Amino acid sequence: MAYEELVRRHQAVAIRTAHLFAPDGDAEDAVQEAFVKAHAALGRFRAGSPFRPWLLRIVANEARNRRRSAGRRAGLALRSAEDRRPDDAAPSPESAVLAAEQRAWLLAGLNALRDDDREVIAARYLLELPAAEAAEVLGVPRGTVKSRLSRALRRLRDGLGTTSND
Amino acid sequence: MTDRLVPFASSDDELAAALRDLAGHLAVPSAGAPTAPLTADPARLARLRIEAGAARGWIRRPHVRPLRRGLLVGLAAVLAIAAVAGAIGLGVPGIRIVPGPVPSSGASAPGSSAPPSSSPPALASPSPIPPPGSASNLPGSGLGLGTPIVAATAGSVAGIAIVLPPDPAIGPPASTWLLDRRVSFVWPAGPELPPAADPTIGLILSEFRGSLEPGYFEKVIGPGTTIEPVRVRGTTGWWVSGAPHEFIYVDAAGQPAFDSRRTVGDTLMWSDGAITYRLESGLDQAAAIALADSLH
Predict the structure, then answer these.
(1) C-alpha distances in angstroms, A108 versus A67, A112, A164, B37, B89?
(2) How far is the alpha carbon of A43 from chain B, nearest alpha carbon, in Å?
(3) Contacts 24+ apart (CB under 8 A), B281-288
(4) Which helix (H) or strand (E) segment is B222 a member of?
(5) DSSP readout, B35-66?
(6) In this predicted model, what pLDDT tens digit does every residue of B172-207 receive, in sequence order?
(7) Nearest residue on chain A to B9, judged by CA atoms?
(8) What is the largest CA-CA distance in chain B?
(9) Residue A162: which residues within 8 A CB-CB, separation 6 or more?
(10) Rg value, chain A, Cα
(11) ipTM exceeding the 0.90 mark
């Protein structure tokens, strides 16, 4: 079925999106549901516009809905394999430890953010979506992405400052 | 700890770079990875659910026959035809027929509703190049057929050998349109051409290179639409009739593009070598096939 082939091209980024928008949910399940909903909504897809942002917006909304209904909070986590690989570290053990510490610290700050702050950071820096695509996925005007991103980075930095001084 | 962490976030750019780095170290679910099991494959599971939903209530039939049935049977039959066509190579090369939602059933997004048959909006093409005179007055304008072009250049711009109705009573097309490399010729309704779904239109003949495209076409069929295989120009074609329907064209990059948002009449599709043809009109099946057979 052509639709399966079509959405599979975007499956990996869809799962990342669902996971980043709702870390405590079942991302694969959210994506499956979003793919079914997107199929039913194909008639509303505008001819000539890019498909990926349209699809990711549906994925993001599905993930958000699940986040709200889940009513609990589990943050993003670092890959555990990452920490168990000290042997093959090319950089010095010291800098590897530093990098790991920095990541854990940054992640803690990210997890402490409000949902909308974390979403815009996720869209632009974790998913590395272009600004226009991030705007469509987030469902806000492009200018709002810029202002929201700036605000989110400020809050992240504020939060990190607090964290590092604790 | 503060000493070595503060410089790391001293500017937005540095913070952004750190976040990008972080992205590669996050734990994410494994689906989407090549090693992911099929049971954790959302695309596959979604497809199975969609097909199950479409085929619900359907009793398997031993043969694919011309079908004019009720809603559910019609949908299921389309599924069956698609499966058979895919399996044994029937039908139009480059075209796949799948059941789908009804885009014109009223659930359209703001600003994207199907144009009414009267007073359609201006050209949907992003960069129309109107010939002398206003393109919006041409038959077929507002139907999403693309940009008006001169009929004589159609074959060269589309890269195909054009065929047209030789019948002088039908005459030359009133307008010619180009969308990507798809050429569409439009005739208004008249004595030889009864009105199609759009009462001002008698015939839309579209010709495009189908099998050279590595992508494929999907036909979105909704309730009330039936489809049956027919013989046309010595090959197997498809007669799609009933409720209005739309095409989705999926290009090589995986981008689905709606052929148009127009509502069309009953449609005859077939392929001749690398070229795919679509004839939309108010003609009945026999007349449409006769017209198709006469094209040269």
Answers:
(1) 19, 6, 11, 31, 56
(2) 4
(3) B281/B193, B281/B194, B281/B196, B281/B202, B281/B203, B281/B204, B282/B189, B282/B193, B282/B194, B282/B195, B282/B196, B282/B197, B282/B202, B283/B193, B283/B194, B283/B203, B285/B230, B285/B239, B285/B241, B288/B239
(4) none
(5) T--GGG-HHHHHHHHHHHHHHTTPPP-SS---
(6) 999 999 887 789 999 999 999 998 877 888 999 988
(7) A157
(8) 88
(9) none
(10) 18
(11) no
- Whether the CB-CB separation of A164 and A105 falls below 8 Å is answered with yes
A12 — contact with chain B (CB < 8 Å)? yes
The rounded distance, in Å, linking the Cα atoms of A137 and A120 is 10
What is the C-alpha end-to-end distance of chain B, expressed in Å? 81
Radius of gyration of chain B (CA): 24
For residue range A80-136, list pLDDT tens digits in order.
Answer: 754 444 445 455 666 666 678 888 889 999 999 999 999 999 999 999 999 999 999
From A144, A12, A98, select the one nearest B42 (Cα to Cα). Answer: A12
Contacts of A40 in chain B (CB under 8 A): 101
Q: Residue with structure tokens 């549901």?
A: A33
Question: CA A121 to CA A21: how far, in whole Å?
Answer: 10
Q: Which of A3, A14, A76 sits opposite B26 (nearest CB)?
A: A76
Q: Do B216 and A78 touch (CB under 8 A)?
A: no
Q: Which of B268, B271, B171 is closest to B213 using CA atoms? A: B271
B46 phi and psi, to 5 degrees? -65, -40
